[in-house]
Specification:
- 69% of the residues lie in helices and 0% in strands.
- By secondary structure, the protein is mostly helical.
- It has a single domain, classed as Farnesyl Diphosphate Synthase (Orthogonal Bundle).
- The longest helix has 25 residues.
- The radius of gyration is 19 Å and the shape is globular.
- Pfam families: SQS_PSY.
- InterPro entries: Isoprenoid_synthase_dom_sf, Squ/phyt_synthse.
């Protein structure tokens, strides 16, 4: 898996860690302390791995921030298990599979009981139970993580396999975040369906952008090909993928106004930043993508975020 779709375009420098409790933690003083500690651990994962996502969460309302950090942390730890950390520690494929399966089993126990001795899993379970999602979203994610340990670069992923992988690696993560945002809302079925479609499409767009941005690392370090059966993409392949990304982003942007007001600035900013990345990817020869990672300049990022915050502020009036 390339970088989790939750990660917004990379900013430089460490993100400050300032977790805020999203809502009252479970009853019992010992459990409250443990849960706060678990959430601090999840915030530290973001601080170390994604400066951009740490910055993006600060645009969320206080009631959402830590929950989304908790989701990110679990996704990141699972990603690291399959993306080389275990291998660098000297574990063979069978041992890597065992680590992943034990992590999955611990996550299931956390979802069932609301407790885990693994701090990241405990924080995630707290969020999942508060937001009302469970194995329906978690298991497709782990299915994609399992597939990373058996990725056949010679074959790559055909369209069906790509769509299945992206559903687990990205779309369901978008749906987890949506569940956090709307957990206190009373939505009619039509509105919920539109929001779920938009969240899944946004997650897919994030993943496809990162697939293009990470061609060099995925190909050279991980030996994986996520964007088609061909070993090397062509400029025509890039154009087809960027067109798909733009359609996905358009579907997501169409429903942002249906989100709770205190989640819109962050989602709009992320969508705008990935749209800017898609534009830059469309202008970059594909052979360059195999050598360097495309980024959006910091000044342009700031302008996109300011525009998103301003639009959301006007909607409050």
């Amino acid at each position: 898996m390339t970088s989790p779709h939750l990660a917004s375009p990379h900013l430089d420098g460490p993100a400050p860690t300032s977790p805020s409790a999203p809502e009252p933690t479970p009853t019992g003083s010992a459990l409250r302390t443990y849960t706060r500690t678990a959430e601090r651990a999840s915030a530290e994962v973001i601080s170390c791995y994604s400066t951009s996502f740490g910055a993006a969460t600060r645009l969320l309302g206080a009631r959402h921030r830590q929950h989304v950090r908790n989701v990110y942390a679990l996704v990141r730890v699972a990603d690291e298990i399959v993306d080389g950390v275990c291998q660098q520690a000297g574990l063979d494929t069978a041992a890597q599979e065992d680590v992943l399966e034990r992590f999955i089993a611990e996550t299931h126990r956390g979802l069932d009981t609301g407790y885990s001795s693994n701090l990241v899993v405990h924080a995630f379970a707290h969020t999942a139970r508060a937001a009302g999602f469970g194995r329906d979203l978690v298991d497709p994610f782990f299915a994609s993580m399992r597939s990373d340990l058996h990725h056949d670069d010679a074959a790559g992923l055909d369209e069906q396999a790509h769509d299945s992988y992206v559903h687990g690696s990205a779309e369901v993560v978008g749906l987890m975040c949506l569940a956090v945002f709307v957990r206190e809302e009373h939505l009619d079925p039509a509105t919920r369906s539109r929001l779920e479609h938009g969240a899944a499409r946004l997650g897919a767009a994030f993943q496809d952008v990162n697939f293009l941005r990470d061609l060099a690392d995925d190909t050279d370090r991980l030996g994986r090909s996520y964007l088609g059966p061909a070993h090397r993409l062509t400029d025509a392949d890039r154009d087809r993928i960027v067109s798909r990304i733009r359609d996905q982003l358009a579907d997501a942007e169409a429903v942002i106004g249906l989100l709770p007001i205190d989640s819109r600035s962050a989602v709009r900013s992320a969508a705008g930043l990935f749209a800017a990345l898609a534009d830059r990817l469309s202008r970059t020869p594909v052979e360059d993508l195999y050598r360097r990672r495309v980024r959006v300049p910091d000044l342009r990022k700031a302008a996109i975020i300011a525009e998103a915050v301003g639009r959301t502020w006007r909607e409050r009036r």
